UniProtKB/TrEMBL annotation:
<dbReference type="InterPro" id="IPR036271">
    <property type="entry name" value="Tet_transcr_reg_TetR-rel_C_sf"/>
</dbReference>
<protein>
    <submittedName>
        <fullName>TetR/AcrR family transcriptional regulator</fullName>
    </submittedName>
</protein>
<keyword id="KW-0238">DNA-binding</keyword>
<dbReference type="InterPro" id="IPR050109">
    <property type="entry name" value="HTH-type_TetR-like_transc_reg"/>
</dbReference>
<dbReference type="InterPro" id="IPR001647">
    <property type="entry name" value="HTH_TetR"/>
</dbReference>
<dbReference type="InterPro" id="IPR041490">
    <property type="entry name" value="KstR2_TetR_C"/>
</dbReference>
<dbReference type="InterPro" id="IPR009057">
    <property type="entry name" value="Homeodomain-like_sf"/>
</dbReference>
<dbReference type="Pfam" id="PF17932">
    <property type="entry name" value="TetR_C_24"/>
</dbReference>
<keyword id="KW-0805">Transcription regulation</keyword>
<feature type="DNA-binding region" description="H-T-H motif">
    <location>
        <begin position="40"/>
        <end position="59"/>
    </location>
</feature>
<dbReference type="Pfam" id="PF00440">
    <property type="entry name" value="TetR_N"/>
</dbReference>
<feature type="domain" description="HTH tetR-type">
    <location>
        <begin position="17"/>
        <end position="77"/>
    </location>
</feature>
<keyword id="KW-0804">Transcription</keyword>
<dbReference type="InterPro" id="IPR023772">
    <property type="entry name" value="DNA-bd_HTH_TetR-type_CS"/>
</dbReference>
Length: 240
């Protein structure tokens, strides 16, 4: 159901892409309502307004549909993160902002598909489940790498990269459960705000000197902590 699956020499076909999107949207709804095992291709054909023979022109079976849904929800974002991480013109802070925005926007725009995958995780066919788990590991790896590079560059606090990455991913994924998709401007606004929040969990305080990882960095962090403690003590004395 990708463009590569089209006959050789064919060009982009907007009508085909529209029908494929309708098929995926209806499959998502039916899988969520009836379960993957209980949904038939005839159900999907009826919901899309196609005959079953016409449906076979776009998809071979249910596994292919589910594989496509998972690919668009996990494999594609992982590839986007990898591309951002590989850019030499961006600092770690800029990379993390773009990566967080990309994931949040993907989850906001495809919330129903993401929730379906989460709910169906235990029942996924073995091969599809392996692909899904591998994509999740790739997403985690890219976030760990950017946090590690930010810590070493002195742009991020000395956090544990894996813990920070898991926390950021969890926050970004959660948008699928509370955000109502459908408004492109709202999707973008939510993604931008969540990216800002993700950055604030790891970035140095505004105005703090950027010091590379090492003894000087440790001393710098201790000074920040002492300054914070002094502010707290001064506030408590003023309120006494």
């Amino acid at each position: 159901m990708t463009r590569e699956d089209a006959p050789r020499g064919s060009t982009r076909n907007p009508r085909r892409e529209l029908v494929e999107k309708q098929i995926l949207d209806q499959a998502t709804r039916l899988f969520a309502e009836k379960g993957f095992a209980s949904t038939t291709l005839q159900d999907i054909a009826d919901a899309t307004g196609l005959t079953r023979p016409a449906l076979y022109h776009y998809v071979a079976n249910k596994d292919e549909l589910l594989s496509r849904l998972i690919s668009e929800s996990t494999e594609t974002p992982a590839a986007v993160l990898h591309d951002i991480n590989g850019r030499s013109d961006l600092r770690p802070t800029e990379k993390l902002r773009k990566m967080a925005t990309a994931i949040a926007l993907n989850q906001a725009e495809t919330a129903d598909r993401f929730k379906l995958i989460i709910r169906s995780e235990a029942d996924l066919p073995e091969e599809i489940s392996r692909t899904y788990q591998q994509s999740r590991r790739h997403v985690l790896k890219e976030f760990v790498l950017v946090v590690e590079s930010g810590v070493k560059a002195g742009e991020f606090r000395p956090v544990d990269p894996r813990t920070a990455a898991l926390g950021i991913i969890g926050m970004l994924n959660w948008v699928a459960w509370w955000h109502q998709s459908g408004d492109a401007d709202a999707d973008r606004s939510v993604a931008t705000q969540l990216a800002d929040m993700a950055l604030r969990t790891v970035v140095q305080e505004s105005g703090a000197p950027v010091v590379p990882e090492g003894p000087e960095r440790a001393i710098s962090m201790l000074r920040q902590d002492l300054d914070y403690l002094e502010r707290i003590l001064a506030r408590d004395r003023s309120q006494a």
